[in-house]
Amino acid sequence: MKNDILIPGILEYIRSTVRAKNEDMHDYAKKHDVPSVEPETGELLRLLASVLKPASVLEIGSGIGTSTTYIKQGFPSAKITGIDHNPNRIAVAKTLCIELENVEFISESAVAYLNRTAETYDMVFIDSVKRIYPLMWQTVKSRVNKGGLVIFDDVLLFGMLAMETAEVSKKYRQGRDELLNFIEEIKNDMPASSTLLPVGSGVLLVNF
Questions:
Q1: Which InterPro entries does the record match to this protein (predicted)?
Q2: Cβ contacts of 131 within 8 Å, gap of 6 or more
Q3: Does the residue 83 lie in any domain?
Q4: What span, in angstroms and rounded, lies between the C-alpha atoms of 88 and 85?
């Protein structure tokens, strides 16, 4: 879907300034029409991982492992658990990320996984179905270590959050309204603090 967050030409310029990384994964995602973080979002993840140096990372909606790879490039020592409900994507991730150490991919719902484990995390990246973001927040926030970071992807819904309701396709209206409510919920959820960035299709950072 077309990203309307940035004015025409700016996205292309931003990408031209970034050294190409993980092109094989981006090409695979485009060729097979599977979700994958955009290059600038991946670069943000890499930078955040290099600064935060998370010992433990949870990815919800890890897909084919593109975001996993960026995080590992930022902090190679991180232990990463990638969860995705789609077994086919998990199978691809295991192949594409076979050389990455201390990474585990699991095909399971995030709620089911978190209900059966007691792990806590320094960094959580969430890139799943947008309507479950409120549930994901309530589920993961008690599992984030002090000083940790939760990252939600695509929260600006390709620019639709800034549109009038009549301008938004009926297909996306419910999701748009739910994301608007979710952002308000995060903003008012103390003691966490949050920052919304116009990177990719919108990235929401929440730290403790």
A1: Cation-dep_OMT (IPR050362), SAM-dependent_MTases_sf (IPR029063), SAM_O-MeTrfase (IPR002935)
A2: 174, 175, 178
A3: yes
A4: 9
Confidence class for position 71, pLDDT limits 50, 70, 90: very high
Report how far residue 159's alpha carbon sits from residue 164's, in angstroms, rounded to the nearest whole number. Answer: 11
Q: Is residue 177 one of the residues assigned to a domain?
A: yes
Query: What distance separates the 2 farthest-apart alpha carbons in the chain?
Result: 48
Beta strand spans in 71-120 (E)? 79-84, 103-107
Rounded Cα gap, residues 179 and 185, in angstroms:
10
- Find the helix or strand (DSSP H, E) in which 26 lies: helix 23-32
Is the pLDDT at 206 greater than 90? The verdict is yes
Q: Can you give the residue range of the structural domain that contains 148?
A: 10-207
CATH of residue 176's domain is 3.40.50.150
pTM equals: 0.91
Which residue has 């699991």 as its token pair?
106
Q: What is residue 152's three-state secondary structure? A: strand
Residue 3 domain-assigned (yes or no) = no
Domain presence at residue 5: no
Q: Count of domains in the chain?
A: 1
